Amino acid sequence: MPDPRPPLDPSDGGVPTARSVAASVAVAPEHSRAILDVAFATSQDAIIIFRARDELIVDVNEAWTRTTGHAREDVVGRSQRTLSIWRDPSDSARLAQHMAERGSVDGFEFAFTRHLPDGGTALGYAVLTAQPVVLDGEVYVVGVGRDVTVERREREARERTRRLEELGHLAGGVAHDFNNLLTVITSYAELLQADAAAGAANPDDAAEIRRAASAAAALARRLVAFSRHQPVVPRRIDLGATVRDAQRLLEPIVGERAELTLDVAPGLPSVLADPGQIEQVLLNLVVNARDALAADDRDARIVVRTGRRDVDAADVRRVLGAEGAPGRYVTLAVEDSGVGIDEATLARIFEPFFTTKAPDQGTGLGLAVVHGIVRQAGGVVVAESVPGRGTTVTTYWPEAGAAPEPQAERAPAPRAGARAARVLLVEDQGPVRAVAARVLTRAGYVVVEARDGREALELVARTHEPFDLVLSDAVMPHMGGREVAEQLATRAPGLRVLLMSGYLDSSEALARLPNLVPHLVPKPFAAAELVDAVRAALAGESPADSDVGDGAASGV
Question: How confident is the model at residue 423 (pLDDT cuts 50, 70, 90)?
Answer without folding.
Answer: very high
